[in-house]
Design a protein that fits this description.
This protein is of the alpha+beta class. The protein has four helices and five strands, in the order βαββαβαβα. It has a five-stranded mixed β-sheet with strand order 2-3-1-4-5, with helices on one face.
């Protein structure tokens, strides 16, 4: 399986919400401009502005490696100045180069690789459900 999906979770430091939002916008801008293998990069902020979830998808492990290269400076600033409590959950197989990168850069991250899907609902079934078919 080459497709890789992940969820990254972090906490926004008290008093840092506006800076966090600016830095998140910078990460999104860089991703849009430079990444070539990113399929999804969606940021969700809790209603009270204290936690954030980022849903990401890549064409494979190489996509996340490329993404990391592109955003490393901006991401370093995010965690240096605005966010804590970072952990990630992976859905897909992790290549050895990706594992090596995560060990080198994911300080404080909780890595939970899930190598295979137990089951899934076909997207057309979900579409039928929501359309009332």
């Amino acid at each position: 399986m080459d497709y890789l999906e992940l969820s990254a979770h972090m906490k926004v430091r008290a008093g840092c919400l506006e800076g966090f939002k600016r830095q998140a916008a910078e990460l999104i801008r860089i991703t849009k401009e430079k990444d070539t293998r990113t399929l999804r990069y969606d940021w969700f902020l809790s209603t009270d502005g204290t936690e954030c979830e980022v849903r990401e998808a890549y064409t494979g492990p190489e996509g996340l490696i490329e993404h990391n290269t592109n955003i490393i400076e901006a991401r370093t600033r995010l965690f240096r100045d605005y966010a804590d409590g970072h952990f990630m959950t992976f859905y897909g197989e992790l290549s050895q180069p990706l594992l090596d990168l995560l060990k080198a850069h994911a300080v404080g991250a909780h890595l939970v690789p899930l190598p295979s899907r137990f089951g899934a609902i076909p997207s057309e079934t979900i579409a039928d459900f929501w359309s009332g078919s």
